Protein 1
Amino acid sequence: MTPNRRALSCAVLLFTVAHLAGAQETIEPLRFEIDGRVYGMPTAEVFTEAYTGPPAVGDTLTLAPELAPLAPGNRTHEVRIDIVAREIEVAPEIRFRAWTFGGSVPGPVLHVREGDKVIFTMKNRSAEVVEVTAPERGASPYISRLAALDPQKARPNAAPTRHSMDFHAGTVAASDKWRGIEPGESIRFEWMANYPGVFLYHCGTPPILQHLAMGQYGVVVVSPRDGYPTDAAVDREYVIVQSELYLREAEVPTHEGDQTEFTEVSGPVLYTLDFEGAQKKLPLFVVFNGHQRSLIDTPLLARPGERVRLYVHNVGPSDTSSFHVVGAVFDRVYYEGNPANDWRGMQTVLLGASNGAVVEFVVPEEGDYVIVDHEFADAQKGAVGRLRAGRPVGPPGAMGH
Ligand SMILES: [Cu+2]
């Protein structure tokens, strides 16, 4: 039977069963396969739960630039990423009250393999004050690192708002799985990692520009089922997420009428979303991994002769990235992270908003390599990082393998 005819007979069967049972609820989507890719996930479930545990659960959730190792073969991942409001630092002494997935901007990196299933749960805890203070057992590598490093010097906050989740790696009816949930509600749905790549996830609640600019994004790395042709040669791998931050200094109401004035404070300054600036595409900062100095103060590490792989994603929300590493040529670029999109010898890779790439290069010598968005207005605003190559411990080819 052809896939279409099989699907049709399934539809008739489901329709009949639903009628016999007197069911009023939605009929489950058809399930079918094309070229080994699975389509038709159960209808999303929206519910309330008493959950107060860690806001990110799953053993392949990490804090960028780290990427979790994957065991061989396909598996089902039970993943939770809750929505929590957090006041975070995004540049020295510059703080803003972000809306986050899991507790940071960007949210946790999820690593799965092509053909894996993800059973995803998310609670909208935007009305709660959620602490992430200590590593919690069994939560995720992400929570452990966040609690230990606290790279954005976060403080809990509350900002009750409707939110949603859109995984670009998922192939589902957005009207069902990506639906909005109110503060206090939870949603659970499934998706299959049908394509390999470096994919965005983000809140898709209107105005989407606002929800993205408030910090609601992260990436999913879907490793190819059969790997990349260069897997065996790679010594180091890191995740870099680029995004624009549209901020202006927060104003505080005075006690006289509707007039406002700027706060006069010493130390950290509170900034707020500049939605007008966002609509005009005038970011205050453009950053790697959520902080202007994240990859400056903590450089990525490698050694001469090593092959470094970067999983790069440009979130936007509205601008491009001309991703470049000073002193290196990208031996391979797998555009969007798909091994079939195989480019050689590239100096720069151009990433539109929500484009990703896997880039690989050989570290030629001991020294510092500047990672940059070669659109220098963006570099000036913070899209700069560093890879530090220390002294090799042996001849090239004898290290790290
Ligand atoms: Cu949102």
Note: The first helix runs from residue 3 to 20.
Protein 2
Amino acid sequence: MSQISEPLNAKHKKSDFSCGKEMLDNYLHKQANQDIKRKLSACFVIKEVETDLVKGYYTLSNNSIPLELIPNEIRKKLPRSYKVIPTTLLGRLAIDNKFQGQGIGKLILVDALKRSYELSKTIGSFAVVVDPIDKNAERFYDKYGFIKLPDSGKMFLPMKTIGQLFE
Ligand SMILES: CC(C)(COP(=O)(O)OP(=O)(O)OC[C@H]1O[C@@H](n2cnc3c(N)ncnc32)[C@H](O)[C@@H]1OP(=O)(O)O)[C@@H](O)C(=O)NCCC(=O)NCCS
């Protein structure tokens, strides 16, 4: 499995990371390592090779969504015995200001989708779910085909659709 990202480690320079959203900056500065230790989420980064400076990061964890949140068109193809559908949560994704607008956001999203797709071959996952931080982020995910889940602010992309990108 070739990925351009790597798991966050102690060598990565992350203290100056700034993406314009304080919550996402603080998460990387203060919480990401603790979440990794506690097995709450995994964190992957794209770095500047020469300096180990973090250009962008994302987090993944197991997740689930209630069947009734899934749009009817897709839900009707799923067995009704599943009240809750297993998914992969792409909880956070951010690019440092200095590197925004250079195509790295797209690269890191594709990397996250690829990693999620490969993992779904080992542990079933029906879709990748994202939780956009604001309307701007929503537009970014919308561009890549993510579908809104009603009443939750979340969006999802079926793993089957993702698989078609990589197979
Ligand atoms: C949203 C974000 C990840 C985009 O990263 P980026 O590196 O600037 O994006 P890219 O340069 O890879 O852009 C890829 C494409 O998405 C488009 N795009 C970027 N941000 C967009 C947005 N907010 N809405 C719609 N399209 C957007 C670009 O125009 C580009 O389109 P093109 O390929 O047709 O030219 C980045 O701006 C960011 O980290 N923002 C703050 C944190 C955030 O909102 N995270 C989102 C998840 S919560």
Note: Residues 6-166 form a domain with the Aminopeptidase fold (CATH 3.40.630.30).
